[in-house]
Structure formats: structure tokens, C-alpha cells
Amino acid sequence: MINTKKLYSYFIILFFALILASCGSRKYTVRSDTKAAKAADAMANLKSKSLYKFITDWTGVKYRFGGLDKSGIDCSGFTFLLEKEIYGVSLPRVSRDQANFARKKSYGALDEGDLVFFSFGGGNVDHVGVYLNNGFFVHASTNRGVVVDDLNLPAYQKALVKTGTVN
């Protein structure tokens, strides 16, 4: 004779074991409309493989005002090094001077390697980045170091004061 209480207990244990096992087998995917996925797409769509390598080598390097190496770099230093190494262009060292050096170019006509200038302080240019494609740019962020960011974010759109080219 089968003990129904014992059989019932086995079914309960089996049921919970199956539930726990199914929780661990869920496939996690990155949604293609996330900020990270879009930034990855911008990097994947770069025409210049040397630019891709340069950015990946510098991504995550912390911000340091006046810095010019991988122990810390500021925005104009990053742009200065990128433009020199990738495009052979010698820019001034300071973002305000880089803005004066760049020839104005409309936002809609930006190409890979063009410059984007910001004024977060409400006056002169105080930040610079390098345009990539599809509304993304790379820069040395004061909070996050060297990163690829979405130029269409409201904070950047509000502070954007000039777009230009040096190539």
C-alpha cells in the first residue's frame, strides 16, 4: 500500500525543485534600445578601426584636470591626444582654444572625428568631446572618466554651444 502523505510530500518537493531550477535557467539579454546597446552600436559602426582601438584603450581612464596620460586625463587633453594620434591634427591644449581653432559645422552634418563643444558653466566653452556617429560622442567625463555618451541627452543639448571640424 502506498503512503499518500509520503507521495504527496515527494510531489511537493519535486514541484519546488522544478520551480527553482527554472528560475536559474532564464536567459538574460540586453535590450537593443538601451543606452549601453546604442553606445556599443556607435562604436561598432566606426569607420576608423584605429579610432575604435584608441577609444577602447582609453575607456574608463579617470578624469584628472590637466591630466594627459592614463593615470588621469581631462576632456581637452583626451581630444588633443585623439586628434593628434588618429587624424594627425595638432590642436591647442585647452577646450576654449580648440573651439576657436575648429571650423564651425552644423550639428546635422557632423562626421566621425568632428568636435562638439559645451558650456556647462554658462559662459565660455568649458568641455569638449569627439563626435562618433548616430548622435554619440566620446569624452572625458568629470564623473565617469573616458566614456561614450549620447549627445541627444537633454543635459548635453542644453550645454552644446558649438560643433566643428578640424579634419
From TrEMBL:
One of its GO terms (biological process) is proteolysis. Keywords: Hydrolase, Protease, Signal, Thiol protease. InterPro entries: Murein_DD/LD_carboxypeptidase, NLP_P60_dom, Papain-like_cys_pep_sf. Residues 45-167 form the NlpC/P60 domain. GO terms for molecular function: cysteine-type peptidase activity. The keyword Membrane does not apply. Belongs to the peptidase C40 family. This is Hydrolase.
